[in-house]
Amino acid sequence: MLIASWNVNSIRSRLSQVIEWLEDKRPEVLCLQETKVSDKDFPYKSFEDIGYSVKMYGQKSYNGVAIISKDKIADIRYGFTGELNQLEISQELESQKRILSGLINGIRIINVYVPNGSSLNSEKFTYKINWLAMLNKYLVEQAKRGEPTCLLGDFNIALNDSDIYAPHKFTGSIMASEIERKMLRKALGSRFKDSFRVFEKFSGHWSWWDYRNNSFELNKGWRIDHIYISNNLLNNIKSSVIERSQRENNQPSDHVPVMINLDLLENLIEFEDDDDDIFNL
Fold first, then answer.
1. How many domains would you assign to the chain?
2. In Å, what is the CA distance from 129 to each residue of 154, 156, 158, 187, 220?
3. Does residue 120 sit within a domain?
4. What is the pTM for the complete model shown?
5. Residue 163 falls within a domain, yes or no?
6. What distance in Å separates the CA atoms of residue 225 and residue 187, rounded to the nearest whole number?
7. Which structural domain, as residue segments, surrounds residue 144?
8. CATH number of the domain within which 11 lies
9. What pLDDT tens digit does each residue of the chain (281 aa) get?
């Protein structure tokens, strides 16, 4: 089962690229971020024509997440209120469409688009930290069902120095600050593993390159698009790749797809977690 994630930076601008990639790779699941269209304006038919169904949680011009699947998407959960009591969530956090989940072939797919944060002293950064705190609560609640889970998307955080081309220059700045990393690690707990790091321990592999300063041509990138898998999927993972070639497209997104291959012939083991702390808010 191929499961992929891609921040497309506008589905309208990148539709032909996404469709071509889907027809070539044929993943069972593709999660999109930064679709930048309202639900009614999403190009559903283009995906349906090649055998995919779509669940969308979008807003005009900004943000937006979508789950695209060959198989049925069950138990759709929109926003933080998909898991949490509405009284726990501020209207501000729920107004931006950044998280969507569904159950596909027995696996809970959670598609996230974490806020960028802009700069460490901005209101947008405060929003990002509050959003990550809510993500932690969301994942604690979701974990109680014991579902095999893929948590994937654009996290706008390089979790380790090895995820940045020049850590000496950027560690401590936006997307690599201590508090961002701490908040994401808290949300992941010991339940999730970085699928890419199961196979590749070294630096030099990026999923995002700034449009400016010839960043792609000079390979000055960051790895901020991640697929985290719950421990009860570790026996099933066969590969994890970054589709770097998509950045060579004409007018590409600044991100490229990331993808894992799960062998569902392996038995999905029951959920276990040795870190009791993730259940304490």
1. 1
2. 15, 12, 15, 12, 26
3. yes
4. 0.94
5. yes
6. 16
7. 2-269
8. 3.60.10.10
9. 999 999 999 999 999 999 999 999 999 999 999 999 999 999 999 999 999 999 999 999 999 999 999 999 999 999 999 999 998 999 999 999 999 999 999 999 999 999 999 999 999 999 999 999 999 999 999 999 999 999 999 999 999 999 999 999 999 999 999 999 999 999 999 999 999 999 999 999 999 999 999 999 999 999 999 999 999 999 999 999 999 999 999 999 999 999 999 998 766 654 444 444 333 32
